[in-house]
Amino acid sequence: MLINILIPTYNRESDLNANLLYLISEIEKDELHSKVSLIVSDNCSQDQTQESVKQIITKHPQIKFEYYRQTENIGLERNVVFVFQQATADHVMYIGDDDLIDKGYLKFCLDAIEKNSSLGAIISGLKSVNKKGDEQIGRNETFETKSLEPGFESMLLYSHLAHQMSGLLIQNNQVLNEYLNQEKNRNPYLFIFFAAYHLLNSPCIYAPVLKTAVQVENEKNWGYNEIGLLDEVFKSYFYFKDRLSEGEIAKLLLHFVKMHSYRLIIKANKPLLILKQARLLSELIPKNRTFKRGIYSLLLKEYLLSVVR
Length: 309
Description:
Elements: E1 3-9, H1 13-29, E2 36-42, H2 49-59, E3 65-69, H3 76-85, E4 91-94, H4 105-115, E5 121-129, E6 135-138, E7 146-148, H5 152-158, E8 168-171, H6 175-180, H7 190-201, E9 204-215, H8 230-238, H9 246-259, H10 271-282, H11 289-308
Parallel strand pairs: 1-2, 1-4, 2-3, 5-9
Antiparallel strand pairs: 4-8, 5-6, 5-8, 7-9
Helix pairs in contact: 1-2, 5-7, 5-9, 7-8, 8-9, 9-11, 10-11
């Protein structure tokens, strides 16, 4: 088995059904039965997820399929870790229960890892989809795919893309153990750590032409805090404090904030709020003046842009 597709799920029976049937059709279309399996971890859903998944398993015995149901809701991060712990394939691919990978993306990933078994990660493109089916294209690069050499530069430019887990393929080596070894830095955005780890250490691929469809209107079981959960995001980079300089860590954090400033509450009539957010963020690396200046400068620019709009 080359790829285990990992799907953590909670109370998304209808979306999950559609996703599983779509993945099965992709496996069958390209005859990938011996190379791809599905692993679902149900976080104690209160809907009919269990019954629906069991029906799909019964109707498609040719598909390698594992289904686990937690006896209680263990939280998103623990469920994500749990489903990874069940993986035995050389590579794993995370997919959200309500997100759909692009047609042909699975075959693309298999071809890539068969050509290069040391490939650390593949990051897909992205498009947002609402309930009406309207699409908004994201990651609209000028290239279709790009091979990324291992190192800090690749980590800096591309690890932030893993904030969206769906379509992220990673090598199943020591990355999960590395993550679990630092209990204080465990966080709901662990996919950023997974991607960053491989971008730093292994050749990777970014494939924006193959766009994962992400549902943007489904209800979430979490919300942002006053700094957009960036304090949690940053933990995925704090793992690298023993391998990178403080200046490099600061660059990673600043780049993430720049690329994902939508997480913050930036309003033209609330200058004090943006100052508070800048202070809270700068305190996450309190002794680094470069980071502090960078955060204040970045958020001031975002505020001024909101005024102009």
